[in-house]
Amino acid sequence: MTTSIHITALDAIVNVNSLFTVAVFIGLAWTGNPTDPNNTLVVDPACSATPKIAEDLISFHVYSFSSFLFSSLIALALKQALRITRNPEFHPSELFARVNKRLFRVGMLVSGAGSAFGCGFLMMALVDMVQIKLGTLACGSGHSFAAVVPLVILVPIALLSYVCVVLYAFTR
């Protein structure tokens, strides 16, 4: 029973990471060339994003992708370890191998942390994309703030609830 719950949880991590990885690539494709002046909705040229913001956008997308990939690979490795230890074909002596519970918990915690970091980096990339498309936050653009404020409120709340659930599962 516990093993099927763990496998289901690991599958969920991999599935969510896959969706967010698709979002990363869509974000990169949609952004196109961030330094292209025709690639923006900003009316005032003084509010246009700097090349530093464009560099940060690409960097945060790469960090996000790396975090999601890391998390998924750890989750898949843990899932495979569980399946191997539960399958008699891999154990000719008819004795099942045991999974180190402490190491398994650490692996799940690390996988969850990778997903959380990926979400954080994806959120920062989206903030930079808003600044490129709608104008920098330093200019006080109402459209930029309207797009960014819900993002920086809702994503951390969701991340906090995710981290709480992961920590709860880690202690059980």
UniProtKB/TrEMBL annotation:
Keyword Transmembrane: yes
Transmembrane residue ranges: 12-31, 60-82, 103-127, 147-170
Keywords: Membrane, Transmembrane, Transmembrane helix
Entry annotated with the keyword Transmembrane helix: yes
Protein name: Maternal effect embryo arrest 60
Organism name: Tripterygium wilfordii (Thunder God vine)
Source species taxonomy: Eukaryota, Viridiplantae, Streptophyta, Embryophyta, Tracheophyta
